[in-house]
Amino acid sequence: MRLRVVAEAFRLREAFTISRESRTVARVLTVLAEAGGVVGRGECVPYARYGESLESVTAEIEGLPEGVTLEALQALLPPGAARNAVDCALWDHAAKAAGKRVWELAGLSAPGPEVTAFTLSLDTPERMRAAAARAAHRPLLKVKLGTPDDMVRLEAVRAGAPDARIIVDANEGWTAEVYADLAPHLLRLGVALVEQPLPAGDDAMLGEIARPLPVCADESCHDRATLPGLKGRYDMVNVKLDKTGGLTEALALRAAARAEGYGIMVGCMVGSSLAMAPAVLVAQGAAVTDLDGPLLLAEDREVPLRFDAEGVHPPEAGLWG
Q: What pTM value is reported for the model?
């Protein structure tokens, strides 16, 4: 098995902003795993929040031994973007070599479409209201927050999309006091879920204050090893392949989290359809699916995922798996 890493960039339809950063291009790494004339593909999005860069992740992947297997990979690299791209490329290779789909190899049921959230980037209240109005036909909107002016923004979004189901993501931008003050207003505005209200590592207060609506761990949850630290603080976990280190651990985390009573959200970084494709398998039956990355792009893979009124559909074999 030989691995090759390719850096690629996909233009976004418009600037995408959260409480930490803003971007106009999705910069990804594509891993090609080749053996026996068969090439498998995987994609990752290195994330500075987790100390990753295109260069550091490339170095991790290029440092792997030739002939690395899916089983050996889990111990050779830690959870994160590098392991994710290689893990998914190896799954894709195995499926192509066997003439089967990944879901069959993994012992999963045949996947179907899942309704996905559509993310509204952080902006002025006026622009967020306009964006909400344009997306009001979508069944689930995810609103990026995490600023001192969040209530004005959220009120604007609700005015723009009065009938949509709404979830919010603070991206670690609140304090416990701010969240406690906002929670009643989130309920009033029909918010169904709040994602990562407090900074990871400084979220103990979530176990001591009232949680009137479900709270989902994102930055606080990476793989199964992080689950014990979430007890009593969170109601749901956001499973992202760039955090778990690939499909292998994502499926294991999903099973472990469900066994401990957590609701499941399956999310993504801003990447192409290749990055979302394996996550669609993990999203089957999830309480919340947030795999809208390709909808934010101005350009995508040659064989993209299909999105329609039913949601995001499983990938065609020409894309992945």
A: 0.95
- 242 touches 222 (CB < 8 A): no
Lookup result for tokens 């993990």: 282
pLDDT digits (tens, 9 = 90+) for 13-69: 988 877 666 788 999 999 999 999 999 999 999 999 999 999 999 999 999 999 999
CB-based contacts of 219: which residues, under 8 Å, 6+ apart? 49, 171, 172, 196, 199, 200
Nearest-angstrom CA–CA distance, 72 and 97? 19
What is the tens place of the pLDDT at every residue in 151-207? 999 999 999 999 999 999 998 999 988 998 899 999 999 999 999 999 999 999 999
Q: Where are the beta strands (DSSP E) in 76-214?
A: 118-120, 140-144, 165-169, 191-195
Give the list of residues 6+ apart from residue 148 with CB closer than 8 angstroms, or none. none
Find how far residue 279's CA is from the centre of its chain. Answer: 8
C-beta separation of 32 from 89 below 8 A: yes
Catalytic residues: 144, 240
- Report yes or no: 236 and 215 within 8 Å, Cβ to Cβ: yes
List phi, psi (to 5°) of 17. -125, 135
C-alpha closest to that of 157 among 183, 184, 122, 192: 122
Displacement of CA 35 from its chain's centroid (Å): 29
**Would you say how long the chain is, in residues?**
321
Which residue type sits at 135?
A
- Helix (H), strand (E) at residue 44: strand 38-44
